[in-house]
């Protein structure tokens, strides 16, 4: 097993597209590291460079203690699972698993042992003698994962492996992958554009935007203190509210009269917005203690919660997460209250977290 060090990785395609722009990643041995970002931000390119399927323009990649820049994929000792898993259609599960091992020339007994072990881990028992077309999407995906497992690589690289599965199966597989990675302790780099997947899987998450790393942190860190407006709008569903504020006597005042207590170290003379999560706000009866006037724009009941969109001081898109029992109709005059916690504060011009 091994950690992965990516240093100043830069990839410029021949047509001039900069897909990866000086990315640094330090992935720990045994870590489940997620790369998250919107389509086109450079996730796949980064992963393919680590795998050796794409040559970087500049920068270094180390797997364990080995500088792998000039090593072909087969010598990097990693296993990759893609969104579109290519199983051999004419081979039964058992032989799909054994194929890469036979290709490596491992003795028969060793091949058998490893195939049986991977089958046990991925619970493939009843599926071992079926061909891919007789397997469901999720089962095929488990076979593809098992085929990566049997090689016992130093690291797994996964590129949106669950995208083609339905929501329920995806949630199951997510649990399975997380459990498996924990059991094996093998370093894993997992690429997704799905923030829920990133939050639930990753020990740490790197958020990428236009080829650059915007933030690296634990799920809690990136949720509580997004490093930039981009991260604030990308993480969380619905995302953080970004409320224009002015500083008066050391407090943050919104146009609609909300008063928030900022974290220490607030910069002076800058245009600021406060990032407030929907669950840090409350919709109340009008005039309730500590509330300011607001109006309900819409209320979306989701069964376990209600998401209110309220107009607050002319900002018509403030989102509030409430328990399902509280009901205010569209257009109702209500109160809006900050229910606690410290907002994240951003500079409007640099778009960076400043406090
Ligand atoms: N062979 C190529 N030639 C030129 N540009 C490319 C090539 N491959 C990818 N790109 C560009 O590089 C950028 C990054 O692409 P990449 O596939 O790494 O994104 P991604 O984050 O994996 O996106 P997605 O979530 O859609 O898979 C994009 O702008 C893409 O158009
Ligand atoms: Mg991709």
UniProtKB/TrEMBL annotation:
The keyword Transport applies. Residues 4-235 form the ABC transporter domain. It comes from the Bacteria. InterPro entries: AAA+_ATPase, ABC_transporter-like_ATP-bd, ABC_transporter-like_CS, ABC_transpr_MalK-like, ABC_transpr_MalK/UgpC-like, Mo/tungstate-bd_C_term_dom, NA-bd_OB-fold, P-loop_NTPase. SMART domains: AAA. Signal peptide: none annotated. Keywords: ATP-binding, Cell membrane, Membrane, Nucleotide-binding, Translocase, Transport. PROSITE patterns: ABC_TRANSPORTER_1, ABC_TRANSPORTER_2. One of its GO terms (molecular function) is ATP binding. This is ABC transporter ATP-binding protein. It comes from Phytohabitans aurantiacus.
């Amino acid at each position: 097993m091994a950690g992965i060090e990516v240093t100043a990785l830069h990839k410029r395609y021949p047509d001039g597209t900069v897909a990866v722009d000086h990315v640094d990643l330090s992935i720990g041995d045994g870590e489940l590291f997620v790369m998250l970002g919107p389509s086109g931000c450079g996730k796949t390119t980064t992963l393919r460079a680590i795998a050796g399927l794409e040559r970087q323009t500049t920068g270094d990649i180390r797997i364990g203690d080995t500088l792998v820049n000039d090593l072909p994929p087969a010598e990097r000792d990693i296993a990759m699972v893609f969104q579109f898993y290519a199983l051999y259609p004419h081979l039964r599960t058992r032989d799909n698993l054994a194929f890469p091992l036979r290709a490596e020339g491992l003795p028969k007994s060793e091949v058998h042992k490893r195939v049986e072990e991977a089958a046990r881990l991925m619970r493939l028992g009843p599926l071992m003698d079926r061909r891919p077309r007789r397997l469901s999407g999720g089962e095929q995906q488990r076979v593809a994962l098992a085929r990566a497992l049997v090689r016992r690589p130093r690291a797994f690289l996964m590129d949106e492996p669950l995208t083609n599965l339905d929501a329920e199966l995806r949630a199951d597989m997510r649990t399975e992958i997380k459990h498996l990675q924990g059991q094996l302790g093998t370093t894993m780099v997992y690429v997704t554009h799905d923030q829920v997947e990133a939050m639930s899987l990753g020990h740490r998450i790197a958020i990428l935007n236009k080829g650059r790393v915007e933030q690296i942190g634990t799920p809690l860190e990136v949720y509580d203190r997004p490093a930039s407006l981009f991260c604030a709008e990308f993480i969380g569903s619905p995302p953080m509210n970004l409320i224009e504020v002015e500083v008066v006597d050391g407090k943050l005042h919104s146009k609609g009269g909300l008063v928030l207590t900022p974290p220490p170290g607030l910069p002076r003379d800058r245009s600021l917005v406060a990032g407030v999560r929907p669950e840090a706000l409350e919709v109340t009866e009008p005039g309730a203690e500590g509330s300011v006037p607001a109006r309900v724009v819409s209320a979306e009941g989701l069964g376990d919660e209600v998401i209110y969109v309220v107009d607050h001081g002319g900002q018509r898109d403030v989102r509030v997460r409430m328990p399902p029992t509280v009901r205010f109709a569209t257009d109702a005059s209500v109160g809006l209250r900050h229910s606690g916690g410290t907002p994240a504060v951003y500079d409007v011009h640099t778009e960076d977290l400043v406090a």
